[in-house]
């Protein structure tokens, strides 16, 4: 019974170490994006701010790019853009 508890604890610690490694690897591209925004804006940008800027860029392209889409979709994209810009204003 004691060996089972030990192996269970080792398994859980291995799982949490694996999860931490996966999260760290997923954050690397976000950090590079934040560094890129920092060099362009000439101010420090964290990953949360970088995600807000990326969201605003995606909303802008979704609003501007589709030439032949329904009016309701354009309105939804405009609302998304306004919300994204307000979030950027709040975070920056």
Tell me about this structure.
The model has no long low-confidence stretch (mean pLDDT 86). The protein is an all-alpha fold. It has helices at residues 2-41, 47-64, 71-91. Helix content is 86%, strand content 0%. It is extended.
Short structural summary:
By secondary structure, the chain is mainly alpha-helical.
State the helix count.
Answer: 3
Low-confidence stretches: none
Order of helices and strands: HHH
The rounded Rg comes to 21 Å
Basic shape: extended
Question: Structural class given helices, strands, pairing?
Answer: mainly alpha
Compute the number of strand runs.
0
Distance between the termini: 55 Å
Which range does the strand content fall in?
under 5%
What number is the mean pLDDT?
Answer: 86
Task: Specify the helix fraction band.
Answer: over 70%
Largest sheet: none
């Amino acid at each position: 019974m004691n060996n089972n508890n030990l192996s269970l604890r080792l398994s859980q610690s291995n799982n949490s170490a694996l999860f931490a490694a996966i999260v760290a690897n997923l954050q690397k591209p976000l950090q590079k994006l934040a560094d890129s925004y920092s060099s362009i804006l000439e101010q420090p940008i964290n990953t949360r701010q970088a995600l807000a800027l990326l969201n605003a860029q995606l909303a802008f392209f979704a609003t501007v790019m589709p030439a032949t889409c329904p009016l309701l979709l354009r309105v939804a994209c405009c609302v998304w853009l306004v919300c994204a810009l307000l979030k950027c204003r709040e975070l920056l």
